[in-house]
Amino acid sequence: MRIGPGNASHTLVRNTRGRCRWCGNPVEWRDSFDQGRVPLMPQWFPARKIPPRYRWHVETGIAFLGAHPNDLGRCRVKHSTVCPAIEHEDLTDPVMLQIVSALGVAQQKFIARGFVPAPPAASEAEVQEPDPPSAARAGGQRHIIAYCRTLRIAPGRIEDLRCLATASTTAERCKNFVFDAAEGAWTKVEIPEDKSRAGQTILNITGGYMWVWALDALDYQNSARWMRQRCPDHATHATAPDARDNELVTFDPKRHGDFVLARRPTGYDYQPLSPTPEPDAPLQTRQCATDGCHNSTVIKNTPADWLCYLCTRRARRRHDTHRKWQSGQPNNKNPRQ
């Protein structure tokens, strides 16, 4: 099977279906507009009954939040918003609460049939983007990738991040790696604010900064290759489907605080994102010749009596007014004329 050339997603429809590991209800894992994944309920809902902030749509395999010109009066709902296995403190809409209750009843039926839910999720973000099964646990290493103020954490070290594409010869997952030392650099960024006790502890230990692998110096095509978890060989292969789900999830200080790096990792060729510019020679400025004016210029070879644009305009206006006054005065030799 191949992906259509005009399709923005590389995930086959058959690979999007699954079940929530916390409540057991069916979900569809769709690629989202922010290059992540989002679990959608497989059912369609009347758009007039769902508040606008909860309406999702799917276009060319990509899920996005908001209105759609061809929605036919229906929309989708994100499962993590109504998952009955977590507490929804800010969910007050009666229609959404009814969906939570219905899913809760289904959850109890699944448990009665033998379903074993995962340990309680820390937040809605964990249900929306759960860590992959291959992610390292506490005590291991998980590197963080930064691009345009977006922080995503890998399942392990960046050099171990494998390509997700399906190899055309073996129909299995590609064995190449995403990492390229020339396409990034270790840099310090601020840790996202977290007011919890765990977040405050991390800030006290690290001073509010952490080391991440930054891709800000790359163009969009190469940075998108990293975010799509593709090797250079499959960066432009739009028809190669993904063999696995994307293993890069949004960094959360509460969930991933154990993997924050307070020191730059060793063993990498450190390359600054941009060369440090040499200090320029001090600029020679010239002050405006008008007394009391503080405007100045850095243009070279300006005359000593140089005037700024404000003073020049003021002097021209004064000159024009004086010339009009002189042209309108009577002849002093013949005052009666």
Can you walk through the features of this model?
With 337 residues, this protein is of the alpha+beta class. The protein contains 6 helices and 14 strands. The chain has helices at 79-82, 94-112, 124-128, 197-206, 220-227, 309-327, and strands at residues 17-19, 26-32, 37-40, 45-46, 56-59, 62-65, 74-75, 144-147, 150-153, 185-190, 209-214, 249-250, 286-287, 296-297. The chain is elongated.
Keywords:
337 residues, alpha+beta, five-stranded mixed β-sheet, elongated, disordered C terminus
One letter per element, helices H and strands E, the order comes to EEEEEEEHHHEEEHEHEEEH
What does the overall shape look like?
A: elongated
Biggest sheet record: 5 strands, mixed
Low-confidence regions: 332-337
Overall mean pLDDT stands at 81
Question: What is the helix fraction of residues, given as a range?
Answer: 10-25%
Cα-to-Cα separation, first versus last residue: 104 Å
Structural class: alpha+beta
| Percent range for β-strand residues | 15-25%
What is the rounded Rg? Answer: 31 Å
The total of beta strands comes to 14
Quaternary state, please? single chain
Separate helix tally: 6
Layout of strands and helices, then pairs:
Elements: E1 17-19, E2 26-32, E3 37-40, E4 45-46, E5 56-59, E6 62-65, E7 74-75, H1 79-82, H2 94-112, H3 124-128, E8 144-147, E9 150-153, E10 185-190, H4 197-206, E11 209-214, H5 220-227, E12 249-250, E13 286-287, E14 296-297, H6 309-327
Parallel strand pairs: 2-6, 8-11
Antiparallel strand pairs: 1-2, 2-3, 4-7, 5-6, 8-9, 9-12, 10-11, 13-14
